[in-house]
Design brief:
This protein has 6 helices and 9 strands, in the order ββαβααβββαββαβα. It is α+β, with helices and mostly antiparallel strands. A hairpin with a 5-residue loop joins strand 4 (about 65-70) and strand 5.
Length: about 190
């Protein structure tokens, strides 16, 4: 509240209001809509990333689902909360790797090349266990389970050693059975 000195009138600055839809009490309305900070805590993302997603979702969903309240803070309806889930897929520390070399290498050559991959990756915690699968006397593929910190360097080394090979990376669902299958050749 400020006082005007010229004509002794009291000028009121209006308080910003939040429009609450008809049929909702004030507490119910607040529970339906979440703020940027609440969404970032729920989804373990930064508030900056949440705001980026807001602008993407706002074009599709409209102001009923996402809008700014009277305090100019973003309010997101819980119906579109699923759109804020993290999109980056995190891989497990150990994963399955299948290498399909396009040439029929002798087994001694494959062992030498796998040793080169192990030395060239320069990762102290790199662990590669592999099994050579043969079909009709020809090496069809290598099954591996890998534990690695520098996946990019590992794949560069694999493509350097097996230049025209195909690599397929998957999760290991049953590690005990998979590791016993891989180490069966060494037993």
């Amino acid at each position: 509240m400020t006082k005007n000195k010229t004509n002794n009138e009291i000028n009121f600055k209006p308080k910003k209001c939040v429009a609450i839809p008809i049929g909702y009490e004030e507490g119910e309305y607040d529970s339906l809509y979440l703020t940027v900070k609440q969404i970032s805590e729920l989804t373990n993302q930064s508030t900056r990333n949440v705001r980026r997603i807001i602008f993407d979702v706002l074009e599709e969903e409209g102001p009923a689902a996402i809008h700014k309240d009277g305090n100019l803070k973003w309010r997101v309806h819980e119906v579109v909360l699923h759109r804020f889930s993290p999109t980056r897929k995190k891989w497990a520390k150990r994963y399955r790797l299948t290498i399909h070399p396009h040439y029929n290498y002798p087994e001694s050559e494959i062992r030498r090349r796998m040793k080169f991959i192990l030395d060239n990756t320069q990762d102290d915690k790199l662990e590669i266990n592999y099994s050579i699968d043969r079909m009709y006397g020809i090496i069809s593929h290598l099954d591996c389970f890998v534990k690695c910190n520098s996946k990019k360097k590992l794949f560069e080394s694999i493509h350097e050693v097996f230049p025209t090979s195909t690599c397929i990376r998957n999760d290991i669902y049953d590690f005990k059975d998979w590791s016993s299958y891989i180490t069966l050749d060494n037993a």
